Amino acid sequence: MTREQLIRGEGQFIADLPDADCRWVAFVRSPHAHARVLSVLPPEGARDVTLVTGHDLASSIQPLRVQAPGLNVYDWHPMHPERALFVGDPVAAVVADSPYEAEDLADAVRIEYEPLPAVTSLEAAAGNETTIHPDLSDNVLFKFALNEGAATEAFASADLVVERTFRYPRQTAVPLECRGVLARYDPREQRFTVWTSTQVPHYLRNGLSQILGVPEDDIRVIRPDVGGAFGLKAQLFPEEVILPWLARETGGALKWVEDRRENLLASVHAHEGTLTLGAAFDGDGNLRAVRARAEGDAGAHSVFPFGAGLDPFTTVINIFGAYRHEIAEIDATSYATNKAPAGSYRGVGQVLSVFAVERLLDIAAGELGLDPAEIRRRNLLRTDDFPHTTPTGNAFDTGNYQETLRMALARADYDGLRAEQRTAATAGKQLGVGVGTFNEVTGVTLYPGYDGARVRIAPDGTIQGFMSSASSGQGHAEVYGRLIAEELGVSRDRVQIVEGDTDLCPSGSGTYASRTAVTMGNTLTLASQDLRRKLLKVAALMLKFEGELSDARVERELTIADGRICLAEDPATGVDFDEVVQAAYLQTLDFALPQEIVEAGLEVTRYEKLPQNVFSNTAIVAAVDVDTETGHFEIRRLVMVGDCGRILDRETVDGQAIGGAAMGIGCGTLEQLAYDADGQLLTASLMDYLVPTAMEVPPIEVGHLETPSSVTRNAAKGMGESGTMGIPAVLANAVADALGAEVTELPLSEERIAGLAMGASSL
Ligand code: SMO
Questions:
Q1: Long-range contacts of range 583-590, CB-CB < 8 Å, 24 or more positions apart?
Q2: How far does the centroid of ligand 1 lie from the alpha carbon of residue 719, in Å?
Q3: Are 85 and 219 contained in the same domain?
Q4: pLDDT per residue over 189-237, tens digit each?
Q5: How far does the centroid of ligand 1 lie from the alpha carbon of residue 230, in Å?
Q6: Taking the CA atoms of the chain, what radius of gyration do you get in angstroms?
Q7: Which ligand 1 atom sits nearest the alpha carbon of residue 231?
Q8: Torsions phi, psi of 221, nearest 5?
Q9: Which domain holds residue 464?
Q10: Ligand 1 mean position to 345 CA, how many Å?
């Protein structure tokens, strides 16, 4: 579906799928954060109720063991037979003829629980007084450390050491469309078809195959249009297992569309953690060494496929990545708590690392008497540092970080803002200016990180790209269409893109980690180039080339543009694209494609994994006016200059930048999931979990620099999360600057800011 079709309301989401023959599923969810499930009984007096418990499920599935380096492995049940591990954890499922009857039925199911002590903080989790997973010896779900002790000497001999502990709140992605599943089982073919709102159809098929104990080929996962995902839909959910399993058991089609409360309570949360970050500088403010220790609150589970280490690992591995330094000692731990499982949400891990690094740089600048822009100029990587490998092992191909900073400062009139700050003081109103510079990990090569593309020209000339990625509404078709059209020399509207169907599309990672342009785009270019060479060879034979038809020769001697393949030296001599297609399918009377030279058909499938992650970089400047009495602030300017290498589609890049920035404003100022000490979620509606509206999002001024990647064939770098990871940090810097106070915790609520303002004025 193209962006235009979605805007016209022509999208077809899970809730829109034909369901006349479907029965509906509702889940009974635990009201306790931690409990033993003693018994599950149907509603009193109810007959012929389809009620499924964890025991029923456990008797015919394989628990999943989520594995990755550093993870402590245990048995994951989509519905545990004996325990509930968070408020919202599914304990039973019922089936009825309508969603309303199903919900009423679920309410009437009788469950006896024995409540257990709930672990609701990192401190309690680390204390291990209560452990959550009986098959693990403690609450540690993930542990990783690198370069232990390496920074000790550098810190001891530094001119300046700055160290603080930063806290990031628990947040969740709030896609406009919540989750939903439609499952069918065909007993004749013994095959499942699962429609689900997901970013990762092939991972899902893999997880389902493991749990259901059937070959992957017996499962078809289809992703219809997806109304936003932002990381939340990049994992396998219990509901995505239970519906197909139940469809097989009951022999009918089943549907479930969740409501907002379920989504906030029981999908996945993210971002929550603390980071103790130290930096050692010399007397000129040059960064020498870094020490980072992250602790993440993973909630109840290590979710498939990425596992519980996702946020804290991403935090520490990318720490101070944009800045020169020689030593980094890092360590990350994830703890199990009795809260909803942590998964991904845009800005994974880097929301915390960028917040902490950018705050710490401002604190260090204050100690050294340097301007925040100046300490960044001194430490940001310089063009001649590239290619560059960080002390944590991240490899960067190209970049011009100093120039993006210069552009952002110039566009925001940084010097003018500073001058105004010095002269125009108004009682109760403070101007604050924040700067942030960082790079963004994209196209992650882990888990396993490859993508697959099949490009096909049908005998009738239809051009199709089948992709392992799965758009959630961000305009993949536009970008892919352009990449294919460029190679094949046709117009973009001739190209159809097919995504999100595991029967049709080659397998691959799906869509997350800003990987679309980089890994998927790269694989697609590879496949398109192969297909292009085949077209050129067929054309060469039609043009009666003699001698060997090497790739290099046809690329050199032929050009392809505007639907024609012509001699480079004599553009008047050529053949029509469509005639070449006919010839490739042996459908021409006057030309027979010699099969011993070029085989018939026009279809190429390629799989590829990039040799390294690809990093874009961004500089942001914000100016805010803070009301020191109420703690309210207005964003006066928000300038964001990004460098994502070659821009493949300007509209898409701008959309990602601005959308990401809006989410960053949410993450930085409003979004916080709160649990009470018993593990009850206090923010289970959008009245309580606040997301930005148009009122909170000022005009975002976006600028671009294009330093081509040397890793990707299309020279692009991913960029979809820069606004989300950078803006909370920059707004925190601006507010701290206005108040002369230290900000080490988010969100920047009015309450927090007013408190900081009072503290600062009493100093
Ligand atoms: S949070 Mo994204 O889907 O990697």
A1: 583/538, 583/541, 583/542, 584/457, 584/534, 584/535, 584/538, 585/459, 587/459
A2: 12
A3: yes
A4: 999 999 999 999 999 999 999 999 999 999 999 999 999 999 999 999 9
A5: 6
A6: 28
A7: 3
A8: -105, 130
A9: 451-608
A10: 5
